[in-house]
Predict the 3D structure of the following.
Amino acid sequence: MLKNKILIFLTLVFFSYNTNILSLENKILLKIENQIITSLDIDNEYKYLIALNQNLKNSTKEDIIKLSKRSIIQEKIKRIEIEKNFNNPKIPQEFLEQIIKSIYSRIGMNNLNEFKEYLKINNVNFEDVKKKLEIEALWNELILIKFSSKIKINEENLKDKIQKDNNKYLKSYLLSEILFEISNLKDLDKKFIEISDAIKDKGFDFAALKFSLSQTSNLGGKLDWINENSLNKNIKEAIKNLKIDDFTKPIVVPGGFLILQINDIKKTKIEVNVEKELKKLVNFERNNQLNQHSKIYFNKIKKNLEINEL
C-alpha cells in the first residue's frame, strides 16, 4: 500500500548550468557536503534529460546544460538527506521494476528491452537511470514517513462530488503542469510573461524543466489522464474553455501558482464506480498534499547546506 502511494507520487525535478563544462576532462565543479558534482556528471545528466524529453532537442545546448546542473544538484541534496535518515537505504527490486516501467511507458516504450536499447542509442547508462529512480523513490518514502500523518482528506466530500458530477459522459484531460513561486505578488505578471514566452518560443516541456518546482518537471511537466471529477473548482473553471495546446493563466494553489496546458481531451461514456473513483480522488488529493510537503522540506534542507563551486 505504502509503495503504491510512493509510485503514484513519484517524479523528479531538474536544475541549471553553463556551456563551458562539457569538456573531455572530468573536473570537480561543485561540492555539497560529502557529495561532489563533476563535469562528467553534468554531461551524463544532459544525455539523460534529452533521452526522457525529446522535445528538448529544439532547445539550445546552453539551456539544456543549465537544466542539467539544476537537476544533478537536486539529486545530490536528496541523496544527502536520504543517507541521514536511512541506514543502508534500498528499494525492493520488484518495486523498482514498477517505477522503471512507469517511466518508459510514459515516453512510449513497450517493454524493458526496448527501453534499454533506447537508452543505449542515446548514450545513457541503464544502471545510472536505476540509481536515479531509486534515489527519487527513497526520497518519496522519506516524505511519506515524515508527513503522512499530516495528510487530511475528507472522503465524504469527495464521494459527494463524484455522485454529484456523475454524468453520462465524463470528460478527461491530458495535462502538463508548471508549478512556480514568487516572493512578491507584484512580480506575478512579470513571471507569467517570462514563462509564457518560454512556452511559446521553446515549448511547454522546456518551460516546465526550467521553471517548475513540481516533481513532474523531468518529463516536461506531463501528467497522466485526469478526469474532470478529479479537478477542483478553480482548475475546472480555468481550463473549461481552453482548446488543445492552450495553457492557463496562473492558478492559485497551496504553496504557489500553477500553469496547466491541455495536451488532449476525450469524452468517455461511463458507468461510474463510486468506490473506484473515490480511490482515485483520494490518491490524487494525497499526492497533491505530499508534493507540497516535499517542496517545502526540500527548500528547508537546501538553505541549510553549503554549496561550493570549485
